[in-house]
Amino acid sequence: MSIRVYKDKEFQLLDDVYDPGEDSFLLVDVALKEVRPGEKVLEIGTGSGIVSLFVKDVADVLATDINPHAARNARLNGVTAVRMDLYNGICGRFDLIIFNPPYLPTPEEERLKTWLNRAFDGGPTGRVEIARFLENIDTIIAPGGRILTVISSLTGIDETKKMFEEHGFSIELVASEKVPFEKLVVLKCMANKKK
């Protein structure tokens, strides 16, 4: 276990949990601008819980991660977190859903045989988990709800936007940052106000 700091918050990081980097910090910054007091927020793929750690000061947050070490890590950092695959088993609707998907295109030979693989392995295109996330998203997003998701230029920004549009979302690119070998972007995906 190690201690990390971002902005004014100190947080713990366990082994086999994604070490927050530029993508996580970009998502924290956007989420803080987007979240409204008292909203119901769901963070999927919480990892150490870094995003929820900041958002929970403003809203009612529930976080999930398939990695048991990550769910435990988020709880150690004061986040209400459960171990589950995406949002399977969640009842209720959320005003804001935050999703840091495994978005890197990952060939079979580059996959790790640890839980950490689930944090970055987006399948051959980088969009496999994003497609799974969208399958039943209408069951948990509130009318007029929003999704914040971070992806890489390696994932295919236009292709990812199209996936969300095909599920009825209007898309706005709200942040971007150039890092070595890729560009990171945060998409704000807005659901139709009628359900």
Secondary-structure blueprint of this entry?
Blueprint: E1 2-6, E2 9-13, H1 22-34, E3 40-44, H2 50-55, E4 60-65, H3 68-76, E5 81-83, E6 94-99, H4 117-120, H5 128-135, E7 141-152, H6 157-166, E8 170-179, E9 182-190
Parallel strand pairs: 3-4, 3-6, 4-5, 6-7
Antiparallel strand pairs: 1-2, 7-9, 8-9
What does this structure look like?
The protein is an alpha/beta fold. The protein has one domain: Vaccinia Virus protein VP39 (Rossmann fold), CATH 3.40.50.150. Helix content is 26%, strand content 31%. The protein is built from 6 helices and 9 strands. The strands form 2 sheets. A 7-stranded mixed beta sheet has the order 5-4-3-6-7-9-8. A two-stranded antiparallel sheet has the order 1-2. Helix 2 links the parallel strand 3 and strand 4. The radius of gyration is 15 Å and the shape is globular. The termini are far apart. The mean pLDDT is 92.
| Text of the CATH class | Alpha Beta
Low-confidence stretches: none
Distance between the termini: 44 Å
Question: Radius of gyration, Cα only, in angstroms?
Answer: 15 Å
Secondary structural class: alpha/beta
Mean pLDDT value = 92
Multimerization state? single chain
Number of strands: 9
Number of domains: 1
Report on the biggest sheet: 7 strands, mixed
Number of helices: 6
- Topology pattern, helix = H, strand = E: EEHEHEHEEHHEHEE
Approximate helicity band: 25-40%
What is the CATH architecture annotation? 3-Layer(aba) Sandwich
* Residue fraction in strands: 25-35%
- Biggest sheet strand order reads 5-4-3-6-7-9-8
Using the coordinates shown, work out and report the CATH topology. Rossmann fold
Estimate the global geometry from the Cα principal axes. Answer: globular
The CATH fourth-level homologous superfamily: Vaccinia Virus protein VP39
